[in-house]
Design goal:
Layout (H helix, E strand, L loop, with lengths): L1 H12 L2 H21 L2 H30 L1 H8 L5 H31 L7 H28 L3 H29 L6 H9 L2 H13 L6 H41 L3
Length: 260
């Protein structure tokens, strides 16, 4: 598994898309710090970019890497290697390579700016952590979709639809439901629905860390009121961990039954 992970990792980290991904976050961080001249404001602005772009990149790379590596996978399956090691190694290679580009691209501008002397270093660490979580979550979801669907066009389309739903449509439906049920006590419903979307969870986690009540939104305010900063952050991290583990479990389960 480690050899497959190493191959997938170095194959992706050397690609021009990984370099472009790194440069995008690096340039964005430098520009935001230069324009705002405030670390906390730059982190909030970068958060809005991260929670849209990071899931999209994880989705695209997860699908494309699986379909482009299909012959390589078939060759490995002909060897006496357990299937779970092959697919787990490929998944971890994709996730780690994207996470490294994300981490370096985001962290270096703040390091050059002198983040270690700022009180916002915890907020930056939380943003990096949530970005890595989202990378592994959406890479896992898209990897599983590609594993299930033989047709590349169908698999790619389904993966993009999942990203669109969780990034945009889910929040619209959530707000509509809140408006329809505004006369009822819906705090528990709001908490439950926010746990079903990793992007909302990541946003809540950052907001709790920054303690920016005006930007929290309804679900963030409910989390803060019911759990407080410490407990709310712990619950968010546990929920993100579950979101990371579940797609991997489905990948391993499907890989045993998949006929190549």
């Amino acid at each position: 598994m480690l050899k497959i992970l190493k191959y997938s990792f170095f194959d992706l980290i050397r690609s021009r898309w990984s370099i472009i991904y790194f440069l995008f976050y690096f340039v964005s961080g430098m520009v935001l710090l230069y324009l705002s001249n405030d670390v906390s404001k730059a982190i909030v602005s970068l958060m809005n970019i991260t929670f849209i772009l990071t899931p999209l990149i994880g989705t695209i790379f997860g699908v494309m890497n699986f379909y482009n590596s299909r012959e390589f996978v078939e060759l490995l399956l002909a060897q006496p290697i357990p299937r779970k090691r092959i697919f787990l190694g490929m998944y971890l290679g994709i996730g780690l390579s994207l996470s490294l580009s994300l981490f370096l691209g985001m962290a270096l501008p703040f390091v050059f700016y002198g983040i270690f002397g700022s009180s916002a270093i915890g907020s930056l660490a939380t943003l990096l952590l949530t970005g890595i979580f989202l990378t592994f979550i959406f890479t896992g979801i898209s990897f599983y979709i590609a594993l299930v669907n033989e047709n590349r066009l169908k698999g790619f389309g389904m993966a993009i639809l999942v990203w669109l739903f969780l990034s945009f449509v889910y929040d619209g439906l959530f707000l509509l439901l809140l408006l329809l049920l505004q006369e009822y006590p819906i705090e528990n419903l709001a908490i439950g629905m926010s746990l079903l979307n990793p992007i909302d969870l990541s946003r809540i986690l950052i907001m709790l860390r920054l303690d920016v009540s005006a930007l929290m939104g309804y679900t963030g305010a409910v989390f803060h009121r019911f759990f407080g900063n410490g407990t709310g952050m712990l619950i968010s991290l546990l929920a993100l961990s579950v979101w990371t583990i579940v797609p991997v479990w489905f990948i391993l389960k499907k890989s045993h039954k998949k006929d190549f």
